[in-house]
Design goal:
The complex is a heterodimer of chains A (about 600) and B (about 100). Chain A is of the alpha/beta class and about 600 residues long. Chain A has a 9-stranded mixed sheet, sandwiched between helices. A 9-stranded mixed sheet of chain A has the order 17-16-18-19-15-20-21-22-23, sandwiched between helices. Chain A has a two-stranded antiparallel sheet with strand order 1-2. The chains are: A alpha/beta (about 600), B alpha+beta (about 100).
């Protein structure tokens, strides 16, 4: 009952709250009540203020009623808590049938968990003087006590205000509602349709009166609808004042961006196969589990084939896989991949693989990412293929959806889902890639391009980047055939990468050249051997000659030796015969000759 | 609470009020005055306090107070407000 209403928070504490969203609420008195609306509870750090009043305002078709009703349905289904819904604008039947489009089974909740009060004043009712809501609040209070309701929605308060048609009465009745909420301790949500500026000014006191103001917007950009949500005020709590894109999926309303959250993912060193062993090798073992892989390239560069390989490998490991295609129908994908020996049909049959094909509808990517999120939540895949993601991101026409792709990929990362997405681009146009933020969020970026050469078009695969892993820096050729997909080395000759037939020719030429070189080498060796043999032979001849000469010398020496001996003997005999004089003269003349030689040397000096 | 001049064919009214809220009090006074003046021949007024029997109001589809229902003659007519606009009330009650 009657909760004590705390003082209004000072601007300082609110500002503080804005900057530190995740910090404790500065006012301990504000407790929050979850809405169960995806993203909203994160953005508000817990939901709407409990036992207080929240105003949800916006133009027609913004999703105000959906927002309010979704909160009540969530409360009934998840928390088993009852709520009241006061409908001023539509009748209860309309609201229930509208809710059915979101898959909410309102009729099953109506008796115990959800009470609708048809507060539409029938058109044939006659107005005769002033009226008030005392009676209605009495009815509601009785119903709240009966059901133990915790929440109450006043949907379309503007209709009531118009009926009162008197500023003083409007104010009085609204304060009556607020005070009643305070007394009963119910958490109130008031929705208000926003009209022109004049009307907004007239009812601006509503915003001052309540504790929390949520503004829903609906605008058309380039012929496509964009919905967004902004929290304008939240007494006693920090909040993010940004404009958050919202989407209406078949499960209801959700915020596409879940607010400024810290990038906190579990990382793993686990590698999972790309489905192509040689590509695994190039990446030193495959993709990282939970990482985000971007495969970019021109049309027909086998991006989808690489996706198919990854999906098939994932299913082979028994992992649930979701294949989202914006290009082709499921049957066509399966047939096309079968032509390169990738078999998806058995996995489809076993339920592991789900192929979802759709067309991009207009530039509103918010709704489409919302739909993808719902798909992911339904199929719970471990591996996801989006082919091509650029089908969505290329159509970015609205600021709020500029980072939609990034947010979606962030979400997948937080869920630990390994994603392979493709991006249609010619060449490595980094501007295009960074515009969508895909390249920065991608952990691994593989680019497939065409190399046109000698009248052929061949596929060249390169790894542009791969976070947290070494990778090959080489360009490889990607070949597709009935036997499957393969990666082959490419040849670089004269500064040109050779592929296809050119590579084959080059290989042939290389082989011939090798043979020629071999022959030439053999010939040279033989020639050298011959030369060597010749040299050796010559050496032999010379040696033999030397030996012969030595022998000759020896012989000569021998001959000379005996001859000189004879000479000496003969001289002695002669000396004896000619006496000693002859000997002296001979010696003298020999000495004279020696002196002359010495003088000559001196002369030179 | 209820003040009645029994008649099977005369005017039958049910007035929903909320305790002693100003609009409710003036509605009671206004109803009585109009009936005395224009339906003195035969009328029946049932006054229901919504604070005491909210579910009865719910069954009658009454959400704001005060609300006056003309239950007889048929069809049922509904007049909301404190009934200060006697001309409007009279039109609603006398009309067919």
């Amino acid at each position: 009952m009657a909760l004590f209403r705390g003082k209004r928070s000072s601007p300082a504490t609110v500002a503080e709250g804005v900057t530190s969203m995740k910090s404790q609420s500065p006012h301990a008195s504000v407790t929050k009540i979850r809405t169960g609306i995806r993203g909203f509870d994160e953005v508000t750090d817990g939901g709407l203020p409990r036992s207080r009043t929240t105003l949800v305002m916006g133009g027609p078709g913004c999703g105000k009623t959906v927002f309010a009703l979704q909160m009540l349905v969530n409360a009934a289904v998840r928390d088993k808590e009852a709520s009241l819904f006061v409908a001023f604008e539509e009748n209860t039947q309309q609201i229930i049938s509208n809710a059915a489009t979101f898959g909410w089974d309102i009729p099953s909740l109506v008796s115990k968990k959800l009470f609708f009060l048809d507060a539409q004043l029938s058109p044939d009712a006659v107005r005769a003087g002033e009226f008030d809501l005392v009676g209605m609040l009495a009815v509601l209070q009785a119903k709240a006590e009966q059901l133990h309701a915790k929440r109450v929605v006043f949907d379309g308060i503007d209709v009531l205000l118009t009926l009162l048609n008197d500023p003083a009465a409007e104010r009085r009745e609204l304060y009556r509602i607020r005070d009643w909420l305070t007394q009963t301790g119910l958490t109130g949500i008031i929705t208000q349709k926003v009209g022109g500026a004049e009307e907004d000014h007239r009812y601006s006191f509503l915003q001052f009166m309540v504790d929390c103001v949520v503004i829903l917007q609906h605008q058309v950009v380039d012929g496509s609808a964009f919905r967004s949500l902004r929290i304008k005020k939240y007494r006693g709590s920090g909040f993010s004042g940004d404009e958050f894109p919202i989407t209406l999926t078949k499960d209801g309303l959700q915020l596409t961006n879940r607010g400024p959250t810290e990038l906190r993912y579990d990382v793993t060193d686990e590698r999972i196969s790309t489905g192509l062993p040689r590509l695994d090798n190039m990446l030193r073992g495959g993709y990282h589990r939970g990482s985000n892989v971007l495969i970019s390239g021109a049309p027909g560069t086998a991006k989808s084939t690489l996706c198919g390989l990854f999906a098939a490998a994932a299913c082979q490991r028994g992992e649930r896989t979701l294949y989202v295609s914006f290009d082709e129908g499921a049957a066509q994908i399966v047939r096309n991949l079968r032509s390169v020996d990738i078999r998806l049909a058995p996995h489809q049959k076993s339920g592991l693989l789900k192929i979802y094909s759709t067309r991009t509808r207009g530039p509103n990517v918010e709704d489409q990412f919302g739909a993808l999120r719902a798909l992911v939540a339904a199929h719970r895949p471990r591996c996801l293929v989006i082919d091509p993601l650029s089908a969505l991101s290329a159509k970015v026409a609205h600021l709020a959806s500029a980072d939609a792709a990034q947010q979606f990929l962030d979400y997948l990362k937080a869920e630990g889902i390994t994603v392979v997405n493709t991006s249609l681009m010619d060449g490595l146009n980094t501007d295009e890639a960074t515009a969508t933020g895909i390249s920065t969020i991608a952990d691994t970026w593989i680019h497939v391009s065409y190399v046109v050469q000698d009248g052929e078009r061949n596929r060249a695969l390169t790894i542009v980047k791969s976070r947290g892993t070494g990778h090959s820096n080489q360009v490889r050729e990607l070949t597709l055939s009935g036997e499957g997909v393969n990666i082959t080395d490419v040849f670089v000759a004269q500064g040109k990468v050779l592929m296809g037939v050119a590579r084959w020719e080059w290989e042939q030429g290389e082989r011939a050249a090798k043979k020629r070189a071999q022959v030439a080498t053999d010939l040279k060796r033989l020639q050298l051997q011959l030369a060597q043999a010749e040299a050796a032979a010559r050496l032999q001849v010379v040696q033999t000659e030397m030996e012969a000469r030595s022998a000759e010398i020896a012989e000569l020496a021998l001959a000379t030796g005996s001859a000189s001996k004879l000479l000496v003997t003969d001289r002695a005999v002669l000396r004896k015969m000619r006496h000693a004089d002859e000997e002296v003269r001979v010696a003298k003349s020999a000495n004279g000759k020696g002196r002359a030689a010495r003088n000559g040397v001196t002369g030179v000096h | 609470m209820a003040k009645a001049k029994t008649s099977k064919t005369g005017l039958l009214l049910r007035l929903y009020v909320a305790g002693s809220a100003p609009n409710s009090l003036s509605a009671i006074a206004n109803t009585k005055a109009i009936c005395e003046e224009h339906f003195s021949a035969g009328h029946e007024i049932e006054i229901v306090d919504l604070l005491e029997s909210p579910f009865k109001a719910l069954a009658d589809g009454v959400v704001v107070t005060p609300t006056l229902l003309r239950l007889r003659p048929l069809p049922v007519r509904k007049v909301i407000g404190n009934l200060s606009d006697a001309k409007q009330v009279l039109l609603a009650l006398a009309g067919k």
